[in-house]
């Protein structure tokens, strides 16, 4: 029961969607730093390739970019086939790609629901479904078959902003997590992280407008650090997390305790 055996991801094969920047980059960094082979994919080709190069140079693990627009069904299938060509198993899939949309109730566009429910929920299912045979192989061969969905506290409590499609999509993602966990092979776990405020492109304008107020309203009195989300994914991916499935775990600095709204 030593730390190395409980939490090691050395040599594991990982895919992090939206891994070119923000929370996805934080997660990918945690895996690479601990010796995993990490594939990252996002629509931003430049960010994806630059991050992969920087993380590989940092090591000791490796990071490989396979850019793609994961809002599209065919791109999800292409990514899954590309991973299958390169790897005999996939140990960890982190579904992090996502988008948000804010507008007043009167002006909120129908297209926002189409865009966000497709990317934030439907394509998570598409990619997970396509990669599940590889993930099952990872679970049976290495004792490590994991799906980790990146949700949000906005899918648990009502946000202060008028981000209707986003909160609905994250609540749906949390339920999809539970539903998948009940039906996958016993060698695979499926969990979600309900994130609070982290420094990402999605949160950039909100934090610029009032980071001190947001942080001051949290019991922790700070915004999330990269290590906070990386540690949670490493825990779930190691042996120490193998008996945890179907859960939605808040990584939020305590914001759900205080009713803080973002």
What secondary-structure arrangement, pairings included, does this model have?
Blueprint: H1 3-7, E1 13-17, H2 22-33, E2 37-41, H3 45-58, E3 62-65, H4 73-86, E4 92-95, H5 110-142, E5 145-152, H6 164-183, E6 188-195, H7 204-216, H8 226-237, E7 248-251, H9 255-258
Parallel strand pairs: 1-2, 1-4, 2-3, 4-5, 5-6, 6-7
Helix pairs in contact: 2-3, 2-8, 4-5, 5-6
Keywords: NADP, Oxidoreductase
Protein name: Beta-ketoacyl reductase
InterPro entries: NAD(P)-bd_dom_sf, Sc_DH/Rdtase_CS, SDR_fam, Sec_Metab_Biosynth_SDR
Please describe the structure with a list of short key phrases separated by commas or semicolons:
single chain, 262 residues, alpha/beta, Rossmann fold, seven-stranded parallel beta sheet, 9 helices, 48% helix, globular, SDR_fam, NAD(P)-bd_dom_sf
Describe the protein in words.
- The chain has 262 residues and is α/β, with parallel strands linked by helices.
- The protein has one domain (3-251): Rossmann fold (3-Layer(aba) Sandwich).
- The chain has 9 helices and 7 strands.
- Strands 3-2-1-4-5-6-7 form a 7-stranded parallel β-sheet, with helices on both faces.
- Helix 4 (73-86) packs parallel to helix 5 and helix 5 packs parallel to helix 6 (164-183).
- The longest helix has 33 residues, at 110-142.
- It is globular.
- The N and C termini lie far apart (39 Å).
Average residue pLDDT = 92
- What does the radius of gyration come to? 17 Å
Label the structural class: alpha/beta
Determine and state the CATH class.
Alpha Beta
The share of residues in helices is 40-55%
Number of helices: 9
Biggest sheet layout = 7 strands, parallel
Number of domains in the coordinates?
1
Name the CATH homologous superfamily: NAD(P)-binding Rossmann-like Domain
**Under CATH, the topology is which?**
Rossmann fold
Which word captures the global form? globular
- What order do the SSEs take from the amino end to the carboxyl end, as H and E? HEHEHEHEHEHEHHEH
The CATH architecture would be: 3-Layer(aba) Sandwich
Q: How much strand?
A: 5-15%
Cα distance spanning the termini: 39 Å
Q: State the total count of DSSP E strands.
A: 7
Strand order of the largest sheet: 3-2-1-4-5-6-7
Low-confidence stretches: none
